[in-house]
């Protein structure tokens, strides 16, 4: 049903995140939706336009689309972000899409807004067909790995902020997915994809603890909180600071907690050699204590290609750094001309310390986390929160309520490692979906007992097992889709340039550097 025009690691990884069955190639016959991810030559462009006019659907960036639609005149301009405007389904459950790229503004755009004022996305019929044109090239946005200070919308005295990925990859993916939903819907076809969580639950919840420099009494308070809420946490151990407490982590591992590596020395280096040494020492120390790690989380959420290379050398299965991605589904970063061997598992980046800095009251903190959980549940995606021992110990009652809410709202719980391993199984799932009339045909190479296929159509959805089977769409037990979370236009205030924010960021960076020297 969906065809990607040209092979491209970024695009293919995005579509795999969504769990879509797709083909790659320039053959047009029988192709309902084409994703044009590069400028076609003149002959292909002519054939593509004929395909659209005869009923085909096209998703493309404005620059690529201009090669097909001769009258289109995109204007090159800096594009910091685009955001929802109105209630278009293209922005269902999509927040601010940070792009930080050179975009292509479209004169006839009619959906969403850009940071400079004009409308963002053009969704329009063409002949018997339909086009959705984005004001940016997805590949260009997703290949950027820059990070910077970013504020997060919240009803607090100040916006919480942290240094995170400059591009909001998750929002780019959700916008693309909604575009594909719209284009398939126009052809009377459902959106069929692998579910993003195990089993049949709509979402799943996990809690990550970066141990940093927390004293033993706070580590023990975190363990008591886990027992109180009846949940196993994912702990990422700063071995340099907690070498004397590895017995505690070994005991927690025996109780079923997920114990992984944060670092030996609490810093990230720009080069491969020092990163390799830092995480090798930590990994070996944990292995000697009987808790060999398979996952890792770099200090301060920082990421760079040499760090990733060190993780690959040390054989880690996954890592989680919000300077690369946050609030997104797992993916493999593109490094050079290939995908990383280390899976990236994003989390939500705002911890309690950031809310304290935003002068939030406890009531506002609880409301903030509930809004994060509600949004991820509405998206039917996992919700992973994280924090540090000192703040967890300080706000134990508040977090107990938040975690109980997350468990109930998401419908299931997991750990970072359990989820990363399930995702790797999902990556290996070989399957396909075709629709003919009212018949949906699912084809899999084997039965995947813990993986589901989501089918969405007309604001309804149904979850099916990932096994080869044939279904009559009119006889499925459809349920209404979860109510979307409306976008609050006040969220755009978080994107206003702020010298004060830059100054605070600089101060925070100095503190981080000093902390890194503590080891």
Automatic annotation (TrEMBL):
GO molecular function: hydrolase activity, acting on carbon-nitrogen (but not peptide) bonds
UniProt domain NodB homology: residue ranges: 212-318
Alphabetical list of InterPro entries matching this protein: Glyco_hydro/deAcase_b/a-brl, NODB_dom
Gene Ontology terms describing biological process: carbohydrate metabolic process
Top-level lineage group: Bacteria
TM regions (residue ranges): none
Pfam families in UniProt: Polysacc_deac_1
The protein's name in its UniProt record: NodB homology domain-containing protein
Native source species: candidate division WOR-3 bacterium
């Amino acid at each position: 049903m969906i065809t990607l025009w040209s092979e491209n690691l970024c695009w293919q990884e995005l579509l795999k995140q969504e769990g879509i069955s797709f083909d790659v190639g320039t053959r047009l016959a029988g192709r309902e939706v084409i994703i044009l991810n590069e400028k076609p030559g003149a002959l292909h462009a002519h054939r593509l336009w004929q395909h659209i006019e005869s009923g085909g659907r096209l998703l493309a960036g404005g620059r690529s689309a201009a090669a097909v639609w001769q009258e289109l005149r995109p204007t090159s301009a800096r594009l910091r972000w685009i955001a929802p405007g109105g209630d278009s389904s293209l922005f269902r459950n999509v927040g601010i899409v940070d792009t930080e790229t050179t975009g292509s503004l479209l004169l006839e755009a009619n959906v969403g807004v850009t940071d400079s004022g004009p409308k963002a996305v053009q969704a329009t019929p063409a002949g018997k067909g339909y086009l959705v044109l984005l004001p940016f090239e997805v590949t260009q946005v997703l290949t950027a790995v820059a990070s910077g200070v970013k504020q997060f919308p919240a009803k607090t005295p100040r916006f919480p902020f942290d240094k995170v990925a400059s591009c909001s990859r998750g929002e780019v993916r959700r916008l693309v997915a909604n575009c594909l939903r719209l284009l398939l819907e126009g052809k009377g076809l459902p959106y069929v994809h692998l579910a993003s969580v195990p089993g049949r639950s709509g979402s799943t919840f996990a809690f990550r603890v970066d141990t940093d420099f927390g004293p033993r009494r706070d580590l023990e308070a975190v363990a008591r909180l886990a027992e109180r809420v009846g949940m196993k946490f994912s702990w990422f151990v700063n071995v340099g600071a907690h070498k004397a407490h590895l017995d505690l982590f070994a005991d927690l591992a025996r109780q079923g907690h997920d114990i992984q590596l944060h670092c030996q020395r609490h810093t990230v280096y720009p080069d491969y050699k020092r990163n390799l040494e830092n995480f090798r020492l930590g990994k070996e120390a944990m292995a000697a204590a009987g808790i060999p790690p398979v996952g890792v989380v770099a200090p301060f959420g920082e990421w760079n290609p040499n760090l990733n290379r060190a993780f690959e050398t040390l054989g880690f299965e996954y890592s989680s750094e919000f300077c690369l991605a946050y609030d997104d589904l797992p993916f493999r970063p593109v490094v050079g001309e290939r995908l990383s061997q280390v899976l990236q598992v994003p989390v939500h980046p705002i911890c309690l310390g950031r809310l304290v800095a935003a002068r939030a009251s406890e009531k506002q903190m609880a409301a903030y986390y509930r809004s994060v959980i509600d949004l991820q549940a509405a998206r039917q995606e996992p919700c992973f929160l994280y924090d540090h021992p000192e703040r967890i110990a300080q706000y134990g009652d508040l977090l107990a309520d938040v975690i109980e809410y997350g468990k109930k709202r998401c419908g299931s719980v997991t750990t970072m490692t359990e989820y990363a391993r399930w995702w790797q199984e999902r990556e290996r799932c070989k399957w396909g979906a075709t629709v003919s009339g009212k018949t949906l045909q699912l084809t899999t190479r084997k039965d995947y007992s813990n993986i589901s296929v989501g089918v969405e159509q007309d604001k309804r959805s149904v979850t099916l097992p990932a096994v080869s089977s044939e279904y009559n769409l009119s006889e499925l037990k459809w349920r209404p889709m979860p109510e979307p979370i409306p976008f609050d236009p006040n969220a755009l205030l978080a994107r206003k340039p702020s010298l004060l924010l830059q100054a605070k960021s600089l101060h925070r960076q100095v503190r981080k550097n000093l902390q890194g020297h503590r080891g």
